[in-house]
Amino acid sequence: MALLTPEDLENINKQLQEADSSVRKVTGLDIKGICKDFYGTTPCCEKVGIVPVTSGNGIIGSFSASLHAITGYFGFDSFVTDMPDVSGYYEAVRNGAQIILMADDNTFLAHNLKNGKIANNQPCTGIIYAEIASRHLKADSKDVLAVGLGKVGFPGAAHFVHKGFRVYGYDADKALLEKTVSSLGIIPFDPDNHSDNFRKFSIIFEATPCANTIPESVISENCVISTPGIPCAISKELQKKYGVELIMEPLGIGTASMLYSVL
Ligand code: NAD
Ligand code: 2YH
Question: Is the pLDDT score of 164 beyond 90?
C-alpha cells in the first residue's frame, strides 16, 4: 500500500483549486457540484473531527492539517484533535464531532456517528474520479481506458460499466485483469498488442502507484485523463503535446467524495 508523503500534500489548497478548475472545464460543474449531484446530499452543519493515527508507519506530517484544509475548502466545520488514536477519538466525540475522519496505513475512513454511514477512501476515490471523467462534455465516444484495477481502480471501472460506458481495462497483474474482465464484463486491453495500441481514447482513467503507465499511442488530442494514481501517470511533455486535461489531486477529491457519501 502506497503511503502519502508530506511532499504529495504540499500546497494542498492550490492543488485543490487547480483540480477544481480542471473539473469545471471538463464537466461544467465544480467538485462540490458533482458530489452534490452524484450523492444527492448537501452538508448543513456537520462538524468533522480529524483524528491523527500513530499505528503502523505513524503520523504523516501534514496529513491531518491537509484534511483540515480540505474540509474547510468544501465548507465543513472541522478540527484536528490534540491527541491521536483512541484518546483522539474520545476527544473528537466529546468536542461535538458528527463525522470522524481517520486513517492508518491501510484504511482511510469517514464515519458519520449520527446516521451510521461509513465510507472507505479507496472506492470513494475510484468512483468520483470515474464520475468526473464520465461527465467529459467533449468526449467523442463512450469508450474508456481504465489502467490499474486495484482497490481504487476496480470500483472506478465498475462505475463506468454501471453508467453504460464501454470499458477497456488493463492491469500489470494478469490474474487480476482476468478476474476483472469476467466479473465486470470489461474488454481486456493489451498495450503490447498492435491493434489495441492503435485505439485512441478521449477518456482515460488511471489508478496505479506507477509513473508513465499510459502508452502514448492511446492518447487522443484534448483527452481527459482522470487519475488518482500517485505519481502522475503521464509526463508533462505528453500532457502538453496532446493538450490533455488532467484531473489529478492527492487527497481532496477523494475526501470530498467520502464526506458527501456519508451525509
Ligand atoms: P492497489 O495496489 O490496490 O492497485 C494498484 C493496481 O495497479 C494493482 O492492481 C497493480 O497491479 C496495478 N499496476 C501497477 N503498475 C501498473 C502498470 N504499470 N500498469 C498497469 N497496472 C499497474 O492500489 P490502490 O489502493 O488502488 O491505489 C492506486 C493508486 O491510487 C496509488 O498510487 C494510491 O496512492 C493512489 N490513491 C490516491 C488517492 C487520491 O485521493 N488521489 C486516493 C487513494 C489512493
Ligand atoms: O496514506 C494512507 C494510506 N495509503 C491510506 C489512504 C488511502 N488513500 N494513510 C494515511 C495515514 C495517515 C497517518 N496515520 C496519520 O497521519 O494519521
Answer: yes
Overall average pLDDT of the 18-32 stretch: 98
The two domains 6-120+254-262 and 123-249 share their CATH topology (first three levels equal): yes
No. of helices (H) and no. of strands (E), the chain: 9, 11
User: Mapped to the 3 state alphabet, what secondary structure does 174-234 carry?
Assistant: HHHHHHHHHHHCCEECCCCCCCHHHCCEEEEEECCCCCCCCCHHHEEEEEEEECCCCCCCC
What's the pLDDT score for residue 197? Answer: 73
Question: Which amino acid would we find at residue 28?
Answer: G
* Cα 186 versus chain centre, distance: 21
Q: Which ligand is nearest to the CA of 126?
A: 1
> Could you identify the atom of ligand 2 that is nearest to the CA of residue 58?
14
How does pLDDT run across 200-232, given as a tens digit for each residue?
999 999 999 999 999 999 999 999 999 999 999
Domain extent listing, the chain:
6-120+254-262, 123-249
What is the model's pLDDT at position 133? 98
Helix spans in 95-141 (H):
121-134
pTM of the model: 0.98
> 6-120+254-262, which class in CATH?
alpha beta
ipTM for the whole complex: 0.98
Q: Is the CB of 60 under 6 A from ligand 2?
A: yes
Closest residue by Cα to atom 2, ligand 1, is 150
Q: Which CATH architecture has domain 123-249?
A: 3-Layer(aba) Sandwich (3.40)
State how far the Cα of 144 lies from the Cα of 147, in Å rounded to an integer. 10
Instruction: Give me the helix-helix angle, 153-162 and 121-134, nearest 10°.
Output: 40
